[in-house]
Write the structure tokens for this entry.
Amino acid sequence: MSESVYKIIELVGSSPNSWEEAAKNAVQEAGKSLKNLRIAEIGKLDMKMEEGKIAAYRARVKVSFKYEGK
Amino acid sequence: MSESVYKIIELVGSSPNSWEEAAKNAVQEAGKSLKNLRIAEIGKLDMKMEEGKIAAYRARVKVSFKYEGK
Amino acid sequence: MSESVYKIIELVGSSPNSWEEAAKNAVQEAGKSLKNLRIAEIGKLDMKMEEGKIAAYRARVKVSFKYEGK
Amino acid sequence: MSESVYKIIELVGSSPNSWEEAAKNAVQEAGKSLKNLRIAEIGKLDMKMEEGKIAAYRARVKVSFKYEGK
Amino acid sequence: MSESVYKIIELVGSSPNSWEEAAKNAVQEAGKSLKNLRIAEIGKLDMKMEEGKIAAYRARVKVSFKYEGK
Amino acid sequence: MSESVYKIIELVGSSPNSWEEAAKNAVQEAGKSLKNLRIAEIGKLDMKMEEGKIAAYRARVKVSFKYEGK
Amino acid sequence: MSESVYKIIELVGSSPNSWEEAAKNAVQEAGKSLKNLRIAEIGKLDMKMEEGKIAAYRARVKVSFKYEGK
Amino acid sequence: MSESVYKIIELVGSSPNSWEEAAKNAVQEAGKSLKNLRIAEIGKLDMKMEEGKIAAYRARVKVSFKYEGK
Amino acid sequence: MSESVYKIIELVGSSPNSWEEAAKNAVQEAGKSLKNLRIAEIGKLDMKMEEGKIAAYRARVKVSFKYEGK
Amino acid sequence: MSESVYKIIELVGSSPNSWEEAAKNAVQEAGKSLKNLRIAEIGKLDMKMEEGKIAAYRARVKVSFKYEGK
Amino acid sequence: MSESVYKIIELVGSSPNSWEEAAKNAVQEAGKSLKNLRIAEIGKLDMKMEEGKIAAYRARVKVSFKYEGK
Amino acid sequence: MSESVYKIIELVGSSPNSWEEAAKNAVQEAGKSLKNLRIAEIGKLDMKMEEGKIAAYRARVKVSFKYEGK
């Protein structure tokens, strides 16, 4: 039914390999405790540098899911 | 007292009739478990289409309320 | 390890004296129940007026911390 | 003639019923003392909450009108 | 299948009564010649003034639909 | 009548002389096949460099015109 | 002295020839009744179309000047 | 009553010491001639340099107050 | 010659594997009916979720190409 | 070869006559010490006022050129 | 003379005490090797957290200064 | 020590294969002459087209590093 309410949370996932994997890590972690994940929007991409090398690709992800109080 | 801390959460409400009703649905659902709701800002409006018709008007709402840990 | 997931929440702190103190109030309150706070980004500054005077400086703060489900 | 100068002012209207009415209240109030109102752009929508209920729908409106000094 | 391509077009609908109706007019007109309309995002709301009165509520709508060349 | 629907398209015009001429080139080209052009908004200005010289001033223009299906 | 307060107003100037002239018209009109005009920022450029031709180049200009109450 | 109309004006305050003081200067100056000042939003912060030193901290402030025609 | 006019259209491509592939799908589909594709800008990335899994990576792409009427 | 790296710098040019000339001044000055200038994007336009007159049209320009360390 | 060219660079200053001091640190460091610093715009404020405490207030500052090749 | 100053520069990297590789190329080139690279933020992604094919994926990267005068 169309009147249900969704909540949006913002997560940061990271991966040594790619932004796709960074985003997947974030939504998988979220999926463990949240039901009905919908669209996941990418907000900002960056890279963490360590000693002149890329230590991690990171992606900010806004995930929406069914809201059931708090 | 003016030093209390507020938390902001982002919800998506929907309604078959109007964005006002969509926003109201979101804050009412939030109001069931949160106290001291204050200003509710509208972030983004859209419409869900189904078979060429508007199935729902949807509104993203940022609600602030008194923060009491997590 | 670099693949852990972080969550971002948005708080509003206030203070009668300065935006620095307003932001500090917000992160201190958050720090009571959250572990591993990292970067805290300032989103928006404003002032609450009461009877023609500044009652409080307020700061919106986005805090990221280790995500452990919901 | 096309070289006349317009001024833009920003108003906030409110209504217990809808954003359309909130915006209408703002432009009507402006229309009492300003001539030649043109396009009125909506900047931001929000809702004022009181005791868990929506006390008012509010709309920020940018109105342009013929500029005649100050 | 998930690899199909969508196109986004931007329309402006208007109505003497409400932004909901303005947006509905835009998507209905689009729906006459386009198939598979999906999400319709609202970009900007304004009002057309005529002789000090609101002549029309207008809504900019971004509609996405299945792309089949040009 | 105020309920007609408009479509917005985005063009890039260029000129060796000025951004005014670049924008004019864009709307003139559009005007050959489209009727009822209205407001043309400038989105972004840039310059194309060739061998250390400005080869062209370019202007992105959003033109709205009466929508008659596709 | 550095503690004086400035006010910013937003004007729309227009010209049949160029955006430079449109902006100049706006600040000249403002300069008739305001003293100490400072930086004038350009906010948005557009063109007014009439019968398929450019009727006017228009520029939104934010002008700051010394504030002396209202 | 919730249907009153507010006007928003934009001021620039400055201070040799801090942005808090710069913002306070702006709202105090405004408060001399305007009644019912409400929220004051900070838009942009900068610093005026003179001979390699900071001559003033400056804050752009949007103040809203009760609108009573012009 | 530098005075030709370009048109920009906005497409959404998707892929089960990566945003690079999603963007490639969009420009390939466009390339079948359009000539002289130039720069393709990425506007927004997201992911479509189905039953807790990533069903598709999606990319919004703005493609510019030579404009030849409509 | 497509894998070379470009650097972007931001300049402010000015001219008593036009924004085109202001931008040209900026890229010409840059061209004296930098090779392979490419696209120059315009970021912000303003005008410097002196004694109620326009003293200079100014343009912020982002210029990209081949990066060869620092 | 008004046709000189300025360059803008972006710095991040930090301080354990305030954003004012963080910004001052940035411009002082820049002032050691650059002449004719002008307006310094604040871009983004944040705080570095260490073990639940604010280790530093940080400010992004855009400084403009006379451009003399590279 | 927390009061050191960082500088931010903006680079454009490119790669025939992916945006991850494009960004890596940019930071590697920068790392040859700069020390203490920190966070690298992604600003804008695009694709260079040549004869209807993707010639390069390109990424704009903002790199911060320790500032030591100019």
